[in-house]
Design a protein that fits this description.
Layout (H helix, E strand, L loop, with lengths): L6 E7 L3 E9 L5 E10 L3 E2 L2 E2 L2 H19 L5 E6 L5 E10 L7 H14 L5 E13 L2 E4 L9 E12 H13 L3 E7 H9 L2 H6 L1 E6 L4 E7 L2 E8 L3 H12 L3 H11 L12 E5 L9 E5 H26 L8 E5 L8 H9 L2 E4 L18 H12 L6 H7 L7 H11 L1
Parallel strand pairs: 1-6, 6-11, 12-17, 17-18
Antiparallel strand pairs: 1-2, 2-3, 4-5, 7-10, 8-9, 8-10, 12-13, 13-14, 15-16
Helix pairs in contact: 1-3, 2-11, 4-10, 6-7, 6-8, 8-9
């Protein structure tokens, strides 16, 4: 990852907000946030661009605010991707070694074969992550360079997205006179921001509950092994409230934030909420409804969202492999009771995740809503350029004690 003057620019283009973090690499090698800008996202819906001009204004305003705070100007950004129905598959490739020692050219050739295998006219390749190397069938090899064998193999975790939505987002970023250093799927970035190393080694599912999408990232053995995106998020809860109570969207959002909960309580019937009616003067016409009515609208939508997550995990086969640990993050995860509801629906141990390992991040932007943007900084730090592409491919995602489980899963599924 090229970093101009040691400066990293991360751009999180979400369905409800656009956020830009600027970080400077310190002498100790750790990033410090020096600029922050965030704006309401206009022109986005469920992770996809619906209005190029509106989104361009949001991105420009966010980047300008971060630049002014940092006193710097950026020319390139690391950007997230949640639209285009990102999905992951696993591809296995083998190449003949003819008895000579594995070198970086062999690894490059093998990874190129894997990428070519996945080429599709309607899907854009976002990530190709080597998960498990083999030599003559011996599994669990983390770095095959210098080893001897007849056949070198690799299992590659390939993440792709629909071409149209990806190109639309790239077009808007370029219209803001910004180059794109790297594209990172949102769940991958969120996981990098929130998860600790032990969680990634032992197995964990990171669920990023955003405004327009809920995304899933499964880590095992220190590596990302599965991703998925569900086009349902916090905005759908807001929309349900607005419809159910006949109130404007902005007031529905306010009610959700101040009074919303995913779990009912006995006191809800006694607490009355003033609800302005849509299209009416706020002072002239309003209803009073018990808080229990609000929660009866919120709870089914959140249950449905979490049940979709459970269904997608079970269908992928990674539900059991990831263990019983779940980390919730994203703006929609902050609502009261969401953690408890997730534990009940998913039958797993759940904690709320927020960005870790970034210096200089103010309290106001250190919550779950900013995990993806923080993760983009972490991604840029981890993917600095190395001398040769083969070395980078090996080092990008080194494995750990969980490799045995990764290898056994791959063996069953290939």
């Amino acid at each position: 990852m090229s970093m101009r003057n040691g400066l990293i620019a991360a751009l999180d283009v979400g369905s409800t907000k656009v956020c830009c973090f600027l970080a400077r690499v310190q002498e100790d090698g750790h990033p410090r946030i020096v600029g922050i800008g965030h704006q309401v996202a206009r022109g986005m819906r469920a992770g996809a661009v619906v209005d190029l001009e509106e989104l361009e204004h949001s991105i420009r305003a966010s980047v300008d605010a971060a630049e002014d705070m940092a006193g710097e100007r950026v020319k390139a950004v690391v950007v997230n991707l949640s639209g285009g129905a990102p999905g992951s598959t696993n591809v296995k490739v083998e190449v003949a070694m003819n008895g000579h020692a594995v070198n970086e050219a062999d690894i490059r050739r093998m990874l190129d074969h894997g990428r070519a295998h996945h080429e599709s006219a309607d899907r854009d390749l976002i990530h190709a992550i080597p998960v498990d190397y083999t030599i003559d069938g011996n599994e669990g090899i983390r770095d095959p360079r210098g080893m001897y064998g007849e056949r070198l193999g690799v299992a590659i975790h390939v993440i792709s997205a629909a071409v149209g939505p990806v190109r639309n987002l790239m077009t808007v970023v370029h219209r803001c006179h910004l180059d794109i250093e790297a594209r990172v799927v949102s769940p991958f970035a969120a996981g990098l921001a929130c998860l600790v190393e032990d969680e990634k080694e032992l197995g964990v599912t990171c669920i990023d509950m955003g405004g327009g999408t809920t995304s899933i990232a499964v880590f095992v053995g220190g590596q990302l092994v599965h991703t998925d995106v569900i086009p349902v998020g916090g905005y759908h809860v807001t929309n349900d409230i607005a419809r159910g109570l006949s109130t404007p969207l902005n007031y529905a959002e306010r009610m959700k934030t101040l009074y919303g909960s995913a779990i009912p309580s006995p006191a809800d019937d006694r607490e009355m909420l003033k609800v302005p009616l849509v299209g009416e003067d706020e002072d002239a016409a309003s209803n009073s409804v018990p808080r229990s009515m609000l929660i009866q609208i919120i709870q089914p939508r959140l249950e449905e969202t979490l049940e979709l997550v459970r269904s997608h995990l079970e269908k992928s086969g990674f539900d059991k492999m990831a263990g019983r640990r779940v980390v919730l993050t994203g703006g929609a995860s902050q609502m009261q009771g969401v953690r408890d509801l997730a534990g009940l629906v998913l039958d797993k141990q759940v904690r709320l995740g927020r960005p870790v390992g970034l210096h200089g991040l103010p309290e106001s932007t250190n919550g779950p809503a900013f995990s993806t943007c923080a993760g983009l900084i972490r991604y840029a730090m981890a993917h600095q350029p190395v001398a040769k592409a083969g070395k980078k491919a090996v080092q990008e995602h080194s494995g750990g004690s969980g490799w045995g489980r990764v290898s056994s899963w791959l063996k069953r599924n290939f």
